[in-house]
Amino acid sequence: MRKVKRVFTNFSFYDPQTIQKKLEEMAARGWMIRKADNLFWTYERMEPQKLRFAVTYFPGASEFDPRPSEKQLDKEAFCAQDGWELVLRWDAIQIFYTDRENAVPIDTDPVPQVENIHRVMKKKVLFTQLFTAVLIVLQMYLQYGQLRRDPADYLSSSFYIFSLPLGVLLFLAAVHEVWVCFRWHARARRAAEDGIFLPVKSSWWWSWGLVLLSALFLVLAVSGTSLRLLYLVCWLVMMGAIYALANRLMGWMKKKGAPRLVNLGASSLLIMALTFVGVAGVVAAALGGWLPLGEDSQPVGQYDWDGLTMDIYDDPLPLTVEDLVEVDARWSRQARVQESFLVRYGEYRQDLLYGQELRGYELSYEITDVKLPILYEFLKNSLIDQHRDEVHDDFVFVDHYEAVDPAPWGALEAWQLHWSDGVLNTYLVCWENRIVEIKFYWAPTRAQIQTAGEILQNTRLA
Amino acid sequence: MPREKFKTLTEQMFYILLCLRRECRGVDILETVRATTAGRVTIGSGTLYDLLDQFLAEGMIRETRVEGRSRSYLITDKGRELLGREYRRIRCQAADYDRVLREEGAG
């Protein structure tokens, strides 16, 4: 029979009544609370007992304190003399229990009780939740930038698509927590005037719904990526290790009697340093090839050119240079395809290996299949809008698409890119659900355009 | 609107200050209040600590003796004034009650 049990705990830090009720239920089933942290609470086996618990708050306490302050010990001594035994200190929370059924509760006047909880809330919730909200807004702003820069890539990435609602959800959760705190304080102060303690209501469906929805979006975001499991595990292990090491350091410094601010500063610095080292390590491992990123194309060989080692790829391409011209040369063919429930997107390029006499017969193109028709115009216009003339000191830098005859492409619409040097062999071609942006490194003939159009229209992205 | 701090007193604040008209150890206040009110008012140990702390911070009471963790307190002039004001407020309430009932009886 196991003697220790760790239970995932998901109730509000500021809901003493729910915590008390839970601890009383656990004690009746033979489990006594021993340790608490943000995610898991640890219980030890004991004889089932009918105990009463009291959760009280000491605003001056912090989880970084090396030991309780004299004032905190004074308060605990008051409680002990009234028959309440301290079982746990955690941050600003103190948990007491008693086996006396008629014991006077520790908090009997809601006015100071509400003020204590509010002072703890201000210190913890405001900073933590507002900091979280700001980080999420920053992250979403970066994602918005990515959407504007490359909408097809963004909308075809399940990771981006599902991390967006995840971010919104976490943002709403942070804002909701702050709102709940302020609303509760205003109501609780009024109720306290009438001698009533208004508890902080933690909604079961809200907190568990939040956890489940967040987990769902996270799984959807991660499962839709081509990243290998090993890569994702590396990130998870890294974050877990940082959390564990920071906790160990905090505990060690507490034991050594380090002052609160020293402990807080050292723990923060350690987290920042480990995050930097961890991220740099994973990125270096990924770039160095020791940690395969995913199912993206892998090189099939290498060659040396001008002192550099170049990779050769041989991915299948829907359209190749050989489909359009009869030339004999060696190429590297690279493809990247990603797909979400909104968009399927393929990025392809065929590059001549360096050092050959043949020049110019190269291709690069992107195929976007729009699954949700409402996105079609947005994606098309975004691709057109990426090229806009710029005026600097009365000089116009030409960079725009102009409509051309779509007939040779067999398409609904076609545009050709105009640049300061003249017309480029870069086209934007639109079929019913498909948009292709293609760059020829040579000037294609009408027949070559017709062939390219037929292939690009009919190919199915793997 | 919630009241201004200590503009009026809760019952527990009132009885703590009343107890401290005589020097008293903190923990003894619990029993004294219970006895004074015949068990009608009970004060929790956490509430007692919090209120003593607030009264000290506001200069309503002062510490007179410290023996280990046992501390004794006594009301100050400022505390006396607050207690007196609260007493007069309660008297006014009682007087209003009596008057209204008398008027109803006469009518």
Describe the structure.
- The complex is a heterodimer of chains A (462) and B (107).
- Chain A has 462 residues and is an alpha+beta fold.
- Chain A has helices at 16-28, 70-81, 110-149, 151-155, 158-193, 204-223, 229-255, 260-288, 321-324, 376-385, 446-458, and strands at 4-8, 31-36, 40-45, 52-57, 85-90, 93-98, 301-305, 308-312, 331-339, 343-352, 363-370, 390-392, 395-397, 399-404, 413-419, 422-430, 434-440.
- In chain A, helix 5 packs antiparallel against helix 6.
- The relative contact order of chain A is 0.07.
- Chain B contains 4 helices and 3 strands, in the order H-E-H-H-E-E-H.
- Classes of the chains: A alpha+beta (462), B alpha+beta (107).
Q: What's a quick, concise take on this entry?
A:
The complex is a heterodimer of chains A (462) and B (107). Chain A has 462 residues and is an alpha+beta fold. Chain A has eleven helices and 17 strands.
Write the layout of secondary structure elements.
The complex is a heterodimer of chains A (462) and B (107).
Chain A: E1 4-8, H1 16-28, E2 31-36, E3 40-45, E4 52-57, H2 70-81, E5 85-90, E6 93-98, H3 110-149, H4 151-155, H5 158-193, H6 204-223, H7 229-255, H8 260-288, E7 301-305, E8 308-312, H9 321-324, E9 331-339, E10 343-352, E11 363-370, H10 376-385, E12 390-392, E13 395-397, E14 399-404, E15 413-419, E16 422-430, E17 434-440, H11 446-458
Antiparallel strand pairs in A: 1-3, 2-3, 4-6, 5-6, 7-8, 9-10, 10-11, 11-17, 12-13, 14-15, 15-16, 16-17
Chain B: H1 11-19, E1 24-25, H2 26-36, H3 45-58, E2 61-67, E3 70-75, H4 77-106
Antiparallel strand pairs in B: 1-3, 2-3
At the fourth CATH level, what is the homologous superfamily of chain B? Winged helix-like DNA-binding domain superfamily/Winged helix DNA-binding domain
Largest sheet of chain A: 7 strands, antiparallel
CATH architecture of chain B: Orthogonal Bundle
CATH architecture field of the domain at 301-458 in chain A: 3-Layer(aba) Sandwich
What order do the helices and strands of chain A follow?
EHEEEHEEHHHHHHEEHEEEHEEEEEEH
Note the main sheet of chain B: 3 strands, antiparallel
Number of strands of chain A: 17
Helix content of chain B: 55-70%
CATH class of the domain at 301-458 in chain A: Alpha Beta
Q: What's the quaternary structure here?
A: heterodimer
Strand order of the largest sheet of chain B: 1-3-2
**Radius of gyration of chain B over alpha carbons?**
16 Å
The coarse silhouette of chain B is elongated
* CATH domain fold name of chain B: Arc Repressor Mutant, subunit A
